[in-house]
Amino acid sequence: MDISPLEIQKKEFSRSIRGYNTEEVDEFLDNLLANYERIYKENRDLREQIQLLHEKMQSYKDIETTMKNALVLAEKTAEEVKSNAEREKEAILKEARLHAKEIIQQAKEQFNQINNQNEELRQQFCLYKIRFKNFLESQLEYLDSLELDLFADSASSCESALKAAAASDGEENRQDTDREVHNQQ
C-alpha cells in the first residue's frame, strides 16, 4: 500500500485511554517508513541517473563541439588546399607560357639564322655562277685570239694583245659580276 503525502497529512489516529493507539501508529509508521525508503531510493537512483544522463549529454555536447570544430577545420583546410592548388596551377601555367615563348623565340631565331644562311648561300652561288661564266667567256675569247695568233708574225705582238685582252676582260667581268649581284638582290 502506497501512502501519499496527502494521506499522511489527513491521517487521524483514534484515541485511546493512554493516547493514540500504539499499534495503528506503529503500523502507519512502518508503512510510512517503507514507502519513504522506497521513494528515497528511487529519488537517489533517479538523481544518479539524471547525473549520468547529464554527464553523457555533456559528453555528447563536447563531441558535437569537437566535431563542429573538426568540420570547420576540415573546411578551412579544404579551402587552403584548393587555393594552394589554384596558385600552383597558375604558377605552372605561367612557367609553361614562359617556356613556350622561349621555345618560339628560339625557333624564330633559328629560322632567321637558317634563312640568312640560305640567302648568303644563294648570293655566293650567284656570284660563283657569274664568275664562272665570265671565266668561261674569257677562256673562249682567249681561244679565239689564239687562232689569230697562229697566223701572226711576231710572238711579242701576240703576248701584248693577250695581256690587253685579259686586262679588259677582267675589268668587264668584274663590272658584269657587280651588276648581276646588284640585280639579284
Task: Summarize this structure briefly.
With 185 residues, the protein is mostly helical.
Structure, explained:
The protein has one domain. The protein contains three helices and two strands. The protein starts with a helix and ends with a helix. Strands 1-2 form a two-stranded antiparallel sheet. Helices cover 90% and strands 2% of the residues. With 185 residues, it is mainly alpha-helical.
List keywords for this structure.
3 helices; 2% strand; mainly alpha; two-stranded antiparallel ribbon; 185 residues
Give the oligomeric state of the chains in this entry, treating copies of one chain as homo and distinct chains as hetero: single chain
N- to C-terminal distance: 132 Å
Helical content, roughly? over 70%
Using only C-alpha atoms, the radius of gyration works out to 64 Å
Class inferred from helices and paired strands: mainly alpha
Number of strands: 2
How would a crystallographer describe the biggest sheet?
A: 2 strands, antiparallel
Overall geometry comes to: rod-shaped
Number of helices: 3
What is the total number of structural domains? 1
Biggest sheet strand line-up: 1-2
**SSE order:** HEEHH
